[in-house]
C-alpha cells in the first residue's frame, strides 16, 4: 500500500470505533489515509481520533470549503486510489445505490472514479432485508467490491450476519484492490 491514497469513509455504525485501527494499520503499510466521516460516525468516534491515527484532517462538512479555489470532495475523490467505506451502514449503501448525495461522503462517492471497497456493518435483519440486498446488487453491478459482513454476536444482542469484517481481512482486500492501480496523479 506504500504511496497509495486511501479515502476511508466511516459511517454511523457501532463498528466505527474499528476505523481507527483500520486507518492505523493502513498507514503502517505506507498508505496515505484520508478519513471522511458522516455525522452518524461522529456519534461513535471523534474526528480527532481519526485525525491522530491518519495524520490528515477529517473531512465531514460538505459546506465548509476552506480553500476557495478547490471543491474539497472533488479534490479528495481525484486523489483516491481506493475509496474504502468501513463500516458501511444500510443507509449509506442505499444512498450510493440511488445516487443520493446529502453529505461529504456521498458527494465524494459520486465524483470518485477509483475502485470502491465496501465493508458493511449493521443488524443482520437490516443486511438481509430485500431493499439492502437490492442496493448491494446494484453496487456490485457497478463493479464495487464488498467484504463481509461476518457472522457473530452483534451489538444489538442478535446473533447472525452483520458484523464488520475483521480489520486484517479488510486491509488484505484493500491491498489486493490497489495492487495494480498506479498512484493517483501518475501518468
Give a description of the structure.
There is one protein chain. The protein has 187 residues and is α/β, with parallel strands linked by helices. Helices cover 39% and strands 19% of the residues. The protein has helices spanning 18-28, 47-54, 72-79, 90-98, 104-111, 124-128, 130-141, 167-178; strands at residues 5-10, 32-37, 82-88, 116-120, 145-146, 150-153, 159-163. A five-stranded parallel beta sheet has the order 2-1-3-4-5, sandwiched between helices. A hairpin with a 5-residue loop joins strand 6 and strand 7 (159-163). Helix 1 (18-28) runs parallel beside helix 2 (47-54). The radius of gyration is 15 Å and the shape is globular. The two termini are 18 Å apart. The mean pLDDT is 91.
Strand content: 15-25%
Gross morphology: globular
Q: Widest sheet: strand order? A: 2-1-3-4-5
How far apart lie the N and C ends? 18 Å
The major beta sheet can be summarized as: 5 strands, parallel
Could you name the ranges where pLDDT drops below 50 across 5 or more consecutive residues? none
Structural class: alpha/beta
Binned, the helix content reads 25-40%
The whole-angstrom Rg is 15 Å
**How many E-type strands?**
7
| Order of H and E elements | EHEHHEHHEHHEEEH
Average pLDDT, rounded to a whole number, is 91
User: Total number of helical segments?
Assistant: 8
Amino acid at each position: 500500500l506504500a504511496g497509495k491514497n486511501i479515502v476511508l469513509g466511516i459511517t454511523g455504525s457501532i463498528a466505527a470505533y474499528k476505523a481507527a485501527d483500520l486507518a492505523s494499520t493502513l498507514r503502517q503499510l505506507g498508505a496515505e489515509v484520508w478519513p471522511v466521516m458522516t455525522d452518524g460516525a461522529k456519534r461513535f468516534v471523534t474526528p480527532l481520533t481519526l485525525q491522530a491515527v491518519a495524520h490528515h484532517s477529517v473531512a465531514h462538512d460538505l459546506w465548509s470549503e476552506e480553500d476557495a479555489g478547490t471543491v474539497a470532495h472533488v479534490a479528495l475523490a481525484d486523489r483516491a486510489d481506493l475509496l474504502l467505506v468501513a463500516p458501511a451502514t444500510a443507509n449509506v449503501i442505499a444512498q450510493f445505490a440511488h445516487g443520493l448525495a446529502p453529505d461529504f461522503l456521498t458527494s465524494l462517492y459520486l465524483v470518485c472514479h477509483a475502485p470502491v471497497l465496501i465493508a458493511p456493518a449493521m443488524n443482520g435483519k437490516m443486511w438481509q432485508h430485500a431493499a439492502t440486498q437490492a442496493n448491494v446488487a446494484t453496487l456490485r453491478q457497478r463493479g464495487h467490491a464488498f467484504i463481509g459482513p461476518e457472522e457473530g454476536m452483534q451489538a444489538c444482542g442478535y446473533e447472525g450476519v452483520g458484523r464488520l469484517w475483521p480489520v486484517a481481512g479488510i486491509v488484505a482486500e484493500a491491498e489486493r484492490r490497489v495492487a495494480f492501480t498506479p498512484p493517483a496523479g501518475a501518468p
